[in-house]
Amino acid sequence: MERAASLEVGELTCDSILRGRLRLWQPVVGYRFSIDPLLLIDFVSDGSFGQVADLGAGVGIVGLGLARRFEQARVTLVELQPRLAELSRRNIVENELTARCQVVLADVLSPSTKQVLPGGSFELVASCPPYYPVGHGGVNPDSEEAIARHELRLPLPKLVAAAKRLVGFRGRVAFVYPSPRLPELLTALGEHSLPVRRLRLVHPQAGEPAQRVMVEAQKGYRGGLVIEPPLYIREADGRYTVQARRALGEPD
């Protein structure tokens, strides 16, 4: 397992987000988080969450952001890449969340992981999963960034199946995903009996096609689908919209 050599301070940045409520170490080179996980944190419905899981946690942004938002939640960050898992641990300490957050270094699809993460253990499972199918663009399949961005180790149908196993009855799952792949996401959720409650499209700016979609589904849900107003990220002059600043935890 790589640790000290790959975690030197000079190879990392420590970035403050959510109005300074969260500080996260992440690599200078390699996989760095975008605004998508911040949008997902904001999108999740309010609820009384005791146990929360972040699948494919990376450096922990979704899970730790949810821990900040839901002060009673105990959060498990699941990550299969050792360096990113180690950064998640560092970020738990950095943000003084050791009492409520833990890291599980594991492949969520491995049969042995079921012993560490029993089925039905969580009220909420959230994920900002790999976006791109295998064969989309040239990637080095051994690189940390490729595994984080491409479905080399976590194909969408298997991710949804894992999420369904982990949530209890009435438990929720929340994803942010490329909007062109929305039909695949809805199909996977339907095939695993996770009815969609809420959906919101994210556009770069007004008049442009959506690039992302946020979806919240719930095991055992029998109500109708709510399609929320679209979220526009930037004004024509490039500034964040008021909607986006609020979602990103920035001042209006």
Chain-wise SSE layout:
Layout: E1 12-17, E2 22-27, H1 36-43, E3 51-55, H2 61-69, E4 74-79, H3 82-94, E5 101-105, H4 113-116, E6 122-127, H5 144-149, H6 156-166, E7 167-178, H7 182-191, E8 196-203, E9 212-218, E10 226-227, E11 231-232, H8 242-247
Parallel strand pairs: 3-4, 3-6, 4-5, 6-7, 8-10, 8-11
Antiparallel strand pairs: 1-2, 7-9, 8-9
Give a summary of the structure in a few sentences.
The chain has 252 residues and is of the alpha/beta class. It is built from eight helices and eleven strands. 27% of the residues lie in helices and 26% in strands.
What does this entry look like structurally?
By secondary structure, the protein is α/β, with parallel strands linked by helices. 27% of the residues lie in helices and 26% in strands. The protein has 8 helices and 11 strands. It has helices at 36-43, 61-69, 82-94, 113-116, 144-149, 156-166, 182-191, 242-247; strands at residues 12-17, 22-27, 51-55, 74-79, 101-105, 122-127, 167-178, 196-203, 212-218, 226-227, 231-232. The strands form 2 sheets. Strands 3, 4, 5, 6, 7, 8, 9, 10 and 11 form a 9-stranded mixed β-sheet that branches. The chain has a two-stranded antiparallel ribbon with strand order 1-2. The longest helix has 13 residues, at 82-94. The termini are far apart.
